[in-house]
Design a protein that fits this description.
The complex is a heterodimer. By secondary structure, chain A is mainly α. Chain A has two domains: 26-97, Rna Polymerase Sigma Factor, Chain: A, CATH 1.10.1740.10; 122-195, Orthogonal Bundle (Arc Repressor Mutant, subunit A). Chain A is 77% helix and 0% strand. Chain A contains eleven helices and no strands. Chain A has helices spanning 3-49, 52-68, 79-97, 106-109, 114-117, 121-125, 129-138, 141-152, 157-164, 168-185, 187-195. In chain A, helix 2 (52-68) crosses helix 3 (79-97). Chain A is elongated, with a radius of gyration of 22 Å. By secondary structure, chain B is mainly alpha-helical. Among the domains of chain B are: 6-49, no CATH class; 104-147. In chain B, 68% of the residues lie in helices and 0% in strands. Chain B has helices spanning 6-13, 18-30, 32-49, 60-67, 70-75, 79-98, 107-123, 128-135, 141-147. Classes of the chains: A mainly alpha, B mainly alpha. Chains A and B meet through helix 1, helix 2, helix 7, helix 8 and helix 10 of A and helix 1, helix 3, helix 4, helix 5 and helix 8 of B. The complex binds zinc ion (ZN). Residues 3-4, 27, 31, 33-34 of chain B line the site of zinc ion. Chain A: Keywords: Sigma factor, Transcription, Transcription regulation. Chain A: It comes from Candidatus Segetimicrobium genomatis. Chain A: GO terms for molecular function: DNA binding; sigma factor activity.
Chain lengths: 198, 154
């Protein structure tokens, strides 16, 4: 037809073939690792963003970024920590970009969510998800990330420090402050838990 | 002696050295307030453990895997494609101004076609083929119109 058309049909398949031969095994390897850690990674994404739509976006973006950087991943090291770190970086970038979303400090937030989260009627129904999740969402992002990693995903401080790229001492103090804030916001549930009613 | 702070959380999580843990334990033995805080922290931690796992939608992983490398591929658009798109855009804009009334009596429709083409060519460089075909008279105008999206539903 035209010279452009000829160039396309000749040039592209060769290019694609070269890429496929080179990238096939890395892609499969990446897919396998991602699948193995997918559910936990999603859980982290969910607690970072606080809703399904944003966690879908976040984990997909992180997967794309991790895939592009996969040649830098060292086999034998822990993929989940590596991927979590990439995802957290994406999350932080998102927050910085999103100027509509104000980032509160922990001190500013303390007390703000107390009236919303204290709903003792939920204790009888055992419906804790709502209040606890709302309280988690009220934490500033950096505190939320630590709580998600240590208390919800059960990671050691060292791993949390590696993922969040900060000293272990920072993890420790952030976690403590976050737990104290949650204690205030969730006071009725905390007391019920201590009485053994939950 | 001042009350304990984040040592309490670390103590609860078992991350203190044996020496630090012993120091915390001896403070706790003397201080009801810190014991109360420790109990609270334990309760908070237990509350957090009641949060159920959030499962991703089953289609999310396959969709994510299928999309991998898509963005990289877009970035790897060869220079000649970009050049072709630019040329097509320039030509289309030029033709819209200069040449349209001659080939087609329906000026509004022709103008619309070339506008669409300019936009389309920028996104899909190979639509330049369509423009070239049109210019060289290989394809009649009616066929091109059929190929392009309709004005009502672009
Ligand atoms: Zn004390």
């Amino acid at each position: 037809m035209t010279s452009a058309h000829v160039a396309l049909s000749v040039a592209l398949p060769v290019d694609e073939l070269a890429q496929a031969a080179e990238g096939a095994s890395a892609r499969d390897q990446f897919a396998e690792l991602l699948a193995a850690h997918w559910d936990r990674a999603y859980r982290f994404a969910y607690h970072l963003t606080g809703n399904n739509a944003d966690s879908d976006d976040l984990i997909q973006q992180a997967a794309e970024e991790a895939f592009r950087a996969f040649h830098r991943f060292q086999p034998g090291t822990r993929f989940d920590r590596w991927f979590f770190r990439i995802m957290h970086n994406s999350f932080v970038d998102r927050i910085r970009r999103d100027r509509r979303r104000k980032i509160f400090s922990l001190d500013e937030v303390t007390g703000a969510a107390a009236s919303e989260t204290a709903d003792p009627s939920a204790i009888a129904e055992g419906a804790l998800d709502g209040p606890v999740l709302r309280a988690l969402r009220a934490l500033p992002p950096d505190a939320r990330a630590v709580v998600a990693l240590v208390d919800l995903l059960g990671l050691p401080y060292d791993d949390a420090a590696e993922i969040l790229h900060c000293p272990v001492g920072t993890i420790r103090s952030r976690l403590h402050r976050a737990r104290l804030a949650l204690r205030e916001w969730l006071r009725p549930y905390v007391d019920a838990m201590k009485r053994g009613d939950l | 002696m001042p009350h304990l702070t984040d040592q309490l959380s670390a103590y609860l999580d078992g991350t203190l050295t044996p020496e630090d843990a012993a120091a915390v334990a001896s403070h706790l033995a003397e201080c009801a307030e810190c014991r109360g805080t420790l109990d609270d922290l334990q309760a908070v931690r237990n509350l957090l453990h009641t949060v159920p796992s959030r499962a991703p939608h089953p289609s999310l992983l396959p969709r994510t895997l299928a999309g991998l490398g898509g963005a990289a591929h877009r970035r790897a658009t060869p220079w000649w494609m970009i050049a072709a798109a630019g040329t097509a855009l320039g030509l289309a804009l030029l033709l819209q101004v200069r040449l349209l009334p001659t080939p087609h009596p329906d000026r509004a429709e022709g103008a619309w076609y070339f506008q669409q083409h300019a936009v389309f060519a920028a996104a899909h460089p190979m639509s330049d083929v369509a423009l070239a075909s049109y210019l060289s008279g290989v394809l009649p105008y009616d066929v091109l119109r059929e190929w392009s999206p309709s004005p009502q539903n672009p």
